Amino acid sequence: MLQNKQIFKRVLPFLFLFILSVGYVGIDLTHRISAPSQAADEDINISFINISAPINTNNVWEWRGVYSVKNYFKEPITTEYKVNWCSESSGIKGASTKECDDHKFNSDFKYTLAHQKVVLDARNTTSKITHQSIDCGRVEIRISDSNKILYQTVYDTGQACPDKKKKSYISFSNTGDFQYQEMLKDLQNVIPEGDLDSELEEYKDDQGDAPPIFGQDNPQTDPITITPDNPDVQPAIDVTNYIIQNCGGRITVANADECMKGLNLGTKNDDLVKQQIILNVAAMARYHLNPYLQCVGFVKAVYAATTGENYSTTGNAASRAGDHGGFKFQNKTNGDPPKAGDMAVWTDGSDGHIAYIVRATDDIIEVVEANRGCDGCIRYKSYPVNTPGLAGWLSKP
């Protein structure tokens, strides 16, 4: 029979571990209870490495990373990553210190290849980033929270892109690539043979600023039920509702061709509407690697729906803030008040924005627009006339 001393000796190690565990749990619980609601930026450490970088245009790149938070925190931390692609190269393949500045649009910066939120709810979080592969220039991963940039890393392909200003079409995915080719075939059925390339070239500048990289909205799902000020602009609402109800509220290279085939508003303008949308998406896919409907292409489509006319002037949205093509530009500070059927023009950013007005007062415009809340998305929205960046509106005399 074991003596008390022997029992104690056998139990002692387990008792010690139990006390240690209780102490650790107590300390951990104390840290959690006393932890601040939000972690400080300086407490967040991030590290990413590139584990796959094929130098071609029909694959994907892959990055692996770890987010570590030094101290305990209560509220989840929302971070967002952005993958930028720029043209220039040092000529040496591998890590680089030259950042890719997305404000240098049409010079060094080419496109944002990926952007996504990452929510941290634990002190250690692993993450993976994948994006379209590229065959020139360099790629930067930039991670930020609501306050500042937390982390940047750059990978250089070792090869400069041949033309910084002309962005070329590359395969987006097997589905996107297939749909792009189908789109071109259908365009050839309505555009005279030999003219398709020149048409796409003409449409290549018909773009506006991209939606915010961080915090994009979801596509609109509810149809528009308002009555426009002028019944002549009802077709603009009908086109918008068709896209909301039949195309998931968004037009991209992957769904534009198939979705537009079903457009039948019962007017003689349907074919022109389809052509404007598909030409815009195809041009963006070929020249800019942003394979979704732009604000300019959408406004051209709804203008065609309401008038049966082709708004043929080319150029980005901001360039339209002036008299052109039979339109009179009304400056918001001293021009005529807005009305249904006018086109509102923003001149802020690199390419600006344009939207089609369906209702208006002296102080508020209600518009249908594309590519504002999220990539290629269509929506109805109201704006105060004093909205920053809104320069005025185009109207027919």
Description:
Residues 270-395 form the Peptidase C51 domain. InterPro entries: CHAP_dom, Papain-like_cys_pep_sf. Pfam families: CHAP (PF05257). The protein is an alpha+beta fold and 397 residues long. It folds into two domains: 41-156, C2 domain (Immunoglobulin-like); 177-395, endopeptidase fold (from Nostoc punctiforme) (Alpha-Beta Complex), CATH 3.90.1720. It is 27% helix and 26% strand. The protein contains seven helices and 14 strands. The strands form three sheets. The protein has a six-stranded antiparallel sheet, covered by helices on one side. The radius of gyration is 27 Å and the shape is elongated.
| Global structural class | alpha+beta
Number-wise, the strands total 14
Beta-strand percentage range:
25-35%
What's the overall geometry?
A: elongated
User: Mean of the pLDDT scores?
Assistant: 81
Could you name the CATH class of the largest domain?
Answer: Alpha Beta
* Stretches with pLDDT under 50, minimum 5 residues: 31-39, 164-176
The Rg value, from CA coordinates, equals 27 Å
Number of domains: 2
Query: How many alpha or pi helices?
Result: 7
User: Superfamily at the CATH H level of the largest domain?
Assistant: endopeptidase domain like (from Nostoc punctiforme)
How is the largest sheet built, in terms of strand order? 9-14-10-11-12-13
Note the gap between the termini: 110 Å
Helix content: 25-40%
CATH architecture level-2 label of the largest domain: Alpha-Beta Complex
Order of helices and strands: HEEEEEEEEHHHHHHEEEEEE
Sheet with most strands: 6 strands, antiparallel
CATH topology type of the largest domain: endopeptidase fold (from Nostoc punctiforme)
Domain Peptidase C51: 270-395
Pfam families: CHAP
Protein name: Peptidase C51 domain-containing protein
InterPro entries: CHAP_dom, Papain-like_cys_pep_sf
